[in-house]
Amino acid sequence: MLQKTVLVAESDVEWREICQRRLVASGFTVITAIDGLTCLMKLKTHWPDVLVMDLDMLWGGADGVLSWVREQPARRSEPVLVVTGRSVPEAMSARTGVASSHCLQKPFHLEHLLDLCAAQRPTAEAQTAGDTSFRKHIMTKETPP
Questions:
Q1: What is the CATH number of the domain that holds 31?
Q2: Contacts of the segment 35-40: beta carbons below 8 A, 24+ positions apart
Q3: How many domains does the chain have?
Q4: b or e along 106-116 (b: 16 or more beta carbons within 10 Å of the residue's beta carbon)?
Q5: Helix (H) / strand (E) containing 81
Q6: Is 145 within a domain?
Q7: What gap in Å lies between CA 131 and CA 86, rounded to an integer?
Q8: What is the pLDDT along the chain (145 residues), one digit of tens a residue?
Q9: What letter would DSSP give residue 142?
Q10: Range of the domain at 74
Q11: 39, 9 Cβ separation under 8 angstroms
Q12: Edge-to-edge strand order for the sheet containing 80-84?
């Protein structure tokens, strides 16, 4: 199985460390960023398989980072999971005008985050076969089968 890299961009130190520990324990390689600016710098040097970021992180926030990601032609459809403490996660698209792959409302079960991170990339066999069904699930926010 291919090891996936996840970039967790979260201003809350405790929440970032909890996510990092759980993802690493589940076999993911994890890169962290403490704010939007650091997240952008890390994205410019290493593109993760999955980007997980807090909507309200400091210095650029998720909306600024997400807008930049969607402006990159090769990265427009890359998986982005936005987490938020807001009561209505759908408000994120209205606020930014840019869609994410998924939006999770805090607090959420870490198992849900793990499942979403694992589902964001196809297996090596699916990539070889040209299976694009996972993109349909990402773009429509459906849970993959």
A1: 3.40.50.2300
A2: 35/9, 35/11, 35/59, 35/60, 36/9, 36/60, 36/61, 36/62, 36/64, 36/65, 38/9, 39/7, 39/9, 39/65, 40/64, 40/65, 40/68
A3: 1
A4: eeeeeeebbeb
A5: strand 80-84
A6: no
A7: 35
A8: 568 899 999 999 999 999 999 999 999 999 999 999 999 999 999 889 999 998 888 877 777 888 888 888 888 777 888 888 776 555 555 555 555 677 788 888 899 999 988 887 543 323 333 333 333 333 333 333 3
A9: P
A10: 5-140
A11: yes
A12: 29-33, 5-9, 50-54, 80-84, 102-105
Does residue 41 belong to any structural domain of this protein?
yes
Phi/psi at 136 (5° precision)? -60, -45
- Does residue 11 belong to any structural domain of this protein? yes
Please identify which residue in the block is written with the tokens 């998720």. 62
